[in-house]
Design a protein that fits this description.
heterodimer, A: about 140 residues, alpha+beta, Arc Repressor Mutant, subunit A, 3-stranded antiparallel β-sheet, two-stranded antiparallel ribbon, elongated, B: about 110 residues, 5-stranded antiparallel β-sheet, about 35% strand, arsenical resistance (chain A), DNA-binding (chain A), transcription regulation (chain A), DNA-binding transcription factor activity (chain A), WH-like_DNA-bd_sf (chain A)
């Protein structure tokens, strides 16, 4: 009942596992590029996660980022480097400062989205099937 | 600049006839029970083809507030069963640059 028939995903051409995957009644977790490991590792650190969430609200430079975090400048730089290499954050020169922002084209940003919603829909389907049963009564 | 063409398509066989499935998907009180409005960007559909398909805007309630669109399609497959297709497309890359103002605070990312 409500079992998954097909799962098709189109990937960005600059992503690694590009092309489409078509799986018949197979688990949804087939196409997980290696970079997700890096994404999860990058976001597992609470400080790094805090930095990412700050940047998700709006971009900032390193000095603005440090405010309220209580983290040293070198530590912030390290965290930003990790977020960049995970494809979550990008930097842009703005006058004397470097401006950091979430990279909406980054493999981390996209990969994390895919990862989240591949698991999200089967869970919604469980609830939908439960509702359909209730509607019978 | 951005392609934002990341798309998830999942198809399910559902043990309910199309008209019943349609009610569960399109009537807000029912839809709320399996797809919370908090996960949507507005409870009203973006478009709707009566009995067949409906499209909603979605937005993550927490950072990075990625925006997307989901389309639900229903097809009869006989024996009182239906095919339910979910097509979920990330649109965030485009939306963020558009920086529209008719949205919840906090979602405008890069200025």
């Amino acid at each position: 009942m409500g079992r998954l028939r097909n799962c098709i995903e189109t990937r960005l051409s600059h992503g690694r596992a590009e092309e489409k995957g078509l799986a018949n009644q197979i688990s949804v977790r087939l196409y997980i590029p290696m970079t997700y490991d890096e994404v999860f590792k990058a976001l597992a650190d609470p400080t790094r996660r805090a930095i990412f969430e700050k940047l998700a609200v709006h971009g900032r430079n390193a000095k603005q980022l440090r405010e309220g975090l209580g983290v040293s400048q070198p530590a912030v730089s390290q965290h930003l480097a990790a977020l960049r290499s995970a494809g979550l954050v990008r930097e842009r020169k703005e006058g004397r400062f470097v401006h950091y922002e979430v990279d909406p084209d980054g493999i981390g940003f996209l990969g994390a989205w895919l990862q989240k919603y591949r698991a999200y829909w089967p869970a919604r389907m469980d609830d939908l099937n439960a509702l359909l049963k209730d509607m019978d009564q | 600049m951005t392609k934002a063409n990341e798309t998830i398509v999942q198809e399910y066989e559902v043990d309910a006839p199309p008209d019943k499935l349609w009610r569960a998907v399109s009537i807000t009180e029912y839809r709320e029970q399996w797809l919370p409005s908090g996960d949507l960007d507005g409870a009203e559909p973006l478009s709707l083809d009566e009995g067949r398909s409906v499209r909603y805007a979605m937005q993550e309630p927490e950072p990075p507030f990625r925006r997307s669109e989901v389309t639900f399609e229903i097809e009869p497959i006989g024996a009182g069963r239906s095919l339910f297709r979910i097509t979920h497309r990330l649109t965030a890359g485009i939306e963020m640059r558009a920086a529209n103002s008719n949205t919840r605070p906090g979602i405008r990312m890069a200025a």
